[in-house]
Amino acid sequence: MSEPIISVQDVSVRFHRSRRHRSIRDLVFRGQGGVRAGEFWGLRHISFDVQPGEAIGVVGRNGQGKSTLLKTIAGVLIPDEGRAVVNGGVAPLIEITGGFVGDLTVRDNIYLAAGLHGMSKKQIAASFDEIVEFAEIEDFVDTPYKHLSSGMKVRVAFSVVSRLNEPIMLVDEVLAVGDRAFRDKCFERIDEMLSEGRTLFMVSHSEANLTRFCTRGLYLREGQLVHDGPIAEVVEKYFSESGDEAALRRRHERRMRRMRRRGLLGDEDDDEDDEDDDTDGLRSVV
Amino acid sequence: MVDSSYTRSPWARVRAIWGARRIFLLLVRRDLKVRYANSVLGYVWTVLDPLLMSLVYWAVFTMLFARDVPGDDPYIVFLLAGMLPWQWFNSTVSQSAKALRSSSRLIRSTNLPREIWVLRVVASNAVEYLFALPVLAGFLIAFQVPLHWNMLYTLPLAFVIMAVLLCGIGLALSVLTVLVPDLNRVVAIFLRLFFYASPVLYSTTRLPEEIRWVYVANPVSDILQLFRSGIFPHYLNWLHVGYAAAVSVVVLALGWWIFARLERTVLKEL
Fold this sequence. Notes:
The complex is a heterodimer of chains A (286) and B (270). Chain A has 286 residues and is an alpha/beta fold.
């Protein structure tokens, strides 16, 4: 097989449960180290390689590390251990409206956002019409961005980022926005990019989307990679483990309650229903 | 190629920043564009702001304390020559303290060397400084103040030392304020203090001997003197310039080191 385009090697990311974190002095002078009180691993020992042209779907329940993994690959988060090596540019369809400024016109914004992602002026000029047409905002090109409706904003952003000439696409649930017609267009665009041989990395809860675009699946649970295989197999495993809907919801809610309490109280595992008045969380954990 | 492992050598960081220079320029241009997009007067404010501010101080000191104007003559020129670089310093420090937070959405969606978000603040304020220089030139002409030829190198030198110092302060502050938001308030108060502890409004030659060392030790003060020495050459003191340059380089190294150490933690907080 050829050189992997993405190589994730034993990546771990540590997060804080409570608002309080270690003192600055600690961070500056010690830096490394294991998990301390009030911390947990958002990702733990994740390793995998991705070949060019693969389409990968990441599944897992909320808070199990999917977005963290995507961010690590996008390079906007630095792992605490291990490394993520990405051989090529990334078109991150995460927080796509991030590069846009409300006070400038749509035209200025398209140039700026595309430029920020590394396109040259000439390239942007060449695909400018295409971008505008795809977003269906021909009449608003000289309107300040802040005056667009929220759906239109996302449309502009998606059409800019999806026009980037990068070999890797990261997609994090952006497809949930926009009206149906536009969503279909987005799907077509993704299909098109896939057929051009680009690599897709997608986070989704929708079985339909996953099986439509992806060939390989990664299943994350509690920050660990529990299954890596053909998408059908991974989706099957994910949904069977999640159980039927009622059980799923119950478990989810219980989990949320526990997380909430942990977040505020830092308690490990007793099951009483104290409410959130303890603010000095870190101290109570040992 | 992106290698998002933690340990990056200083050299790799410099290379990464150099690689992103085009985007950096784009950001600086965007900053200026945004600044001017929303106001009616636009560029005029760059000139008007320090001008009005100086006029206020000029009025106070030449009218209220007419006997004892605290700077060289013409006082308005003396004032502007210090006020413009001070404004650069002031706005850069206060903006870079918020640099990472205010562009957090961009930071979360683009993979650029994170130093850029601070450097762009330094740069766009430096451009503002340069844009405001015509005001000073106007007064120089109006008062027919002779320029000293040493301006040819003192001004660029002062500019460079100031930029280095600001990069250092900015890099350190940008990450520290994310982790300790209270610092923002401390910074505001320190800037006010620094304004009076630096010879913006007055000349150090008027100060009692005993406290002059404070001004020599304060690198901002030395840099301001250097900025002025093209117009008032008696302020030029190479020893002080050398000291300010050395301090600035140390601050840059330290600031960058702090930035590099805290970068990973800060990214999780944004």
